[in-house]
Design a protein that fits this description.
- Strand 2, helix 2 (about 50-60) and strand 3 (about 65-70) form a beta-alpha-beta unit.
- About 15% of the residues are buried.
- This protein is α/β, with parallel strands linked by helices.
- Strands 1-2-3 form a three-stranded parallel β-sheet, covered by helices on one side.
- Helices cover about 30% and strands about 30% of the residues.
- The protein has helices at about 20-25, 50-60, and strands at about 5-10, 35-40, 65-70.
- The mean pLDDT is about 95.
- The longest helix is centred in the last third of the chain and has 12 residues, at about 50-60.
């Protein structure tokens, strides 16, 4: 297998209800998690989007190469 780090970038605005399904899809990917970085960007959401992003990071940060949350 190669040594590439794959980045998955998610930019979200008021996607609190959609993100859990998206995260299920990300978790089901077969590329090695330790070679995957996830960049999550909250675009000033007014619902619970940021909390969902933070929860995903907290639950899976030790499984992936890195999980970064940024504000847009």
């Amino acid at each position: 297998m190669n040594d590439f780090i794959v980045s998955i970038c998610v930019v979200a605005y008021n996607e609190e209800s959609y993100l859990p399904k998206l995260f299920d899809d990300i978790l089901s990917q077969t590329y090695p998690k330790e070679k995957t970085e996830i960049v999550l960007v909250d675009s000033a959401s007014t619902d619970g989007t940021k909390a969902v992003l933070e929860s995903f990071k907290r639950d899976y940060e030790n499984s992936y190469h890195s999980i970064v949350i940024a504000d847009n």
